[in-house]
């Protein structure tokens, strides 16, 4: 597969595309593989993946905090309230990582390197998620661009909970395992 190196404000995006609407079903999976260019944690938030609509009412946002941990947040009410999943480990370490955010209609899951890192029950996102933009390594709303190499992004709608762990582990073993 092809990898893109994002540095110095470079990022990938696609805008004005309703194919990214996750709709009322509210089951989805997002996946991206990344390797930060440095093992020194960022001085400011760095954006991994952001799916937003043009007015930022609906957003699925995954980013690095300054301690190197990852936060995944989802909102459908103009960022008034969020469902947030926060794995505790520092993944800003210049190694390849396979990251999944999965929502099965009741729980948000974050998997890193084929293993469940964190989960939280849905409490705020209740309506349709209709992003029309995808940003990789940046965000519609702002924030520091991510200095990393990325590959293999996946956006899947209607991804249910059946065998999530088995599927994620299987895909990890066949993609990034052994590249450390």
Structural topology:
Elements: E1 3-6, E2 12-14, E3 28-36, E4 46-52, E5 59-64, E6 70-75, E7 83-85, E8 96-103, E9 107-112, E10 115-121, E11 133-136, E12 148-157, H1 164-175
Antiparallel strand pairs: 1-12, 2-11, 3-8, 3-12, 4-5, 4-11, 5-6, 6-7, 8-9, 9-10
Structure report:
This protein has 180 residues and is mainly β. It has one helix at 164-175, and strands at 3-6, 12-14, 28-36, 46-52, 59-64, 70-75, 83-85, 96-103, 107-112, 115-121, 133-136, 148-157. The longest helix is centred in the C-terminal third of the chain and has 12 residues, at 164-175. The chain is globular, with a radius of gyration of 15 Å. The model has no long low-confidence stretch (mean pLDDT 82).
Q: Structural class given helices, strands, pairing?
A: mainly beta
Distance between the termini: 16 Å
Order of helices and strands: EEEEEEEEEEEEH
Average pLDDT rating: 82
- Major sheet: size, sense and barrel closure? 6 strands, antiparallel
Number of helices: 1
Based on Cα principal axes, name the global outline: globular
Name the poorly predicted regions: none
How do the strands of the widest beta sheet line up side by side? 1-12-3-8-9-10
Rg (C-alpha, Å): 15 Å
Question: What is the number of beta strands?
Answer: 12
What proportion strand? 35-45%
Helix content: under 10%
């Amino acid at each position: 597969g092809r990898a893109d190196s994002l540095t110095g404000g470079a990022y990938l995006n696609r805008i004005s595309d309703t194919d990214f609407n996750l709709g009322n079903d509210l089951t989805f999976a997002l996946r991206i593989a990344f390797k930060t260019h440095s093992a020194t944690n960022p001085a400011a938030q760095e954006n991994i993946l952001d799916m937003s609509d043009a007015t930022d009412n609906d957003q699925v946002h995954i980013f690095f905090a300054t301690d190197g941990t990852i936060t995944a947040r989802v909102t459908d009410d103009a960022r008034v309230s969020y469902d947030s999943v926060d794995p505790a480990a520092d993944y800003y370490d210049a190694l390849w990582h396979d990251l999944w955010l999965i929502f099965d209609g009741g729980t948000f899951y974050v998997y890193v390197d084929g293993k469940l890192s964190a989960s939280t029950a849905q409490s705020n996102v209740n309506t349709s998620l209709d992003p029309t933009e995808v940003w990789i390594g940046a965000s519609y709303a702002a924030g520091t661009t991510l200095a990393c190499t990325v590959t293999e992004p996946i956006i899947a709608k209607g991804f249910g909970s059946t065998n999530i762990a088995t599927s994620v582990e299987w895909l990890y073993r066949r993609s990034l395992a052994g590249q450390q």
